[in-house]
Amino acid sequence: MRKLEPGASKVLKALQSALKALPDANVNRARVTIDGRGTYAPTAAFDVRLGERTFVLMVEAMATVNPRDVERCIANLQDYAAQHTGGVDTLILIAARRVSKLAREALEAARTGYFDESGALFLLGPQVYIARDGTAPPEAKCNIGSFLQPHRARVIEHMLKSWPKWLSVKDISSQCDVSPAAVSVALKLMGQMGWLEIDGAGPMKLRRFIQPQDVLKKLSSYSADLPTASMQYFHVPDMDGPVLARRLAEICKAHKIHYAITGTLAAQSLAQMPGEAPQVICRIEGGQHYGEVLRKLGARPVRKAWNFGVLAADHQGHIETGECINGVVYAPVFRVFLDVARANHGDQDVAAQLARVRFGM
Fold it and tell me: pLDDT by residue (tens digit) across 169-194?
């Protein structure tokens, strides 16, 4: 039998209990065949009877299921089932402590089961259809994505940089150029998430994060769940990353175009890391001068072998800018961290180093 991590064992026990609680259900743990060292095998399997319907349920258990995990997990489970069940009716399911909303939608579209500790259960097959939402954990009742809005992101970044200092609404407002009313709303939402500890009462009360690492991890995880960021890819000949960044800065300054460089190159510059990323990723203001910037760079649209990527700005065309280093404007540190951590163009080690250097984590 495959040795289980403590978290996986807990999820599987909860899944088994949920299956047994279904009407007219009989559920027993089944043996999982492991062919050899390094060979894939599901975390567990169950022999299930629901009324007159019997089948084997192959289960992969993991901590968190994100959209990027779905295709790989389904392929592994299907391949294993095809080779080991000998024609027995088989359904597959992914179980986790948390299955993100986007991952649930992807699994349902692929007609693949899922279960998480909120009690959400989805199972679909011949003569089998179970769909139960479960009870969302407390933090899910607040839209965590709202903290990625520019003004709230500035509040988050300032509180991360200032930790463990206690901060008032006035402190945050003056440092972040966000109205006191907007700061108060952001702090109220953070309190609902259970992120804050409070000192004092009334208008002068002070706040700080209880576990800043936790806040950063949750926001990074949420950001990674989002659909792949829309990016246009270009190749600019005869320029490495730093040279290309400086040339872009010169052109944008001359034409008074707002831009902000993000991605690995930005993280390396903001954290003073060794190494020079060969690719420049930025957000840039659209409009009549955008084509002129591309022309002066000599940027050619490509699908592969790109060294210049342009991310879409937000729906209002807003460009968040942070520090200017050696004439090059970068996105705010918090935004760069989230961009670098994203799976579509991410580097988790660089993101972690940026958090250590700029947020003390």
Answer: 999 999 988 899 999 989 988 888 88
